Amino acid sequence: MMRPVGSPEELERKRQRAITLIEQGITQAEIARVLGVEPRSVRRWKHAWTEGGREALGATRATGRPPRLSARDRQKLEKQLLKGAVSAGFPTDLWTCPRVADYIERTFGVQYHVDHVCRLLHGMHWSPQKPVRKAVERDEEAIQQWVKQDWPALKKKRTG
User: Residues in domain Winged helix-turn helix (predicted)?
Assistant: First the structure.
């Protein structure tokens, strides 16, 4: 069955108009002709109206398939992402989509394709980041000392 043409609000107005015409005593076949719909649609609307009143004819959004990870599970996932990959049992602290998929399957028992994990993370407002590459031999203390002592002296020489 194809979806009728029109916004949900326009379709609701059409259903409400059909009920108004039914209340005025007009036949269902005539209502279908006037509104440009199938008679079975008018019968379905009348049945919904008798069962649930005019509220049953209201516009509803198509919700789609429910997510496999609940909102609570997504919050738990986000907390783990913030803690880092090492705390989840991975050798480095870099989160990749395959690692996130593996973590989701181990923790929540839900299997996601790697491509969908990327969409899931994007929906959680996470974006891909390039890891900062640093030399293994890097000495942070020596760098800080150089920035505080040597760099200002070099800056002064250059300016003047």
Answer: 92-149
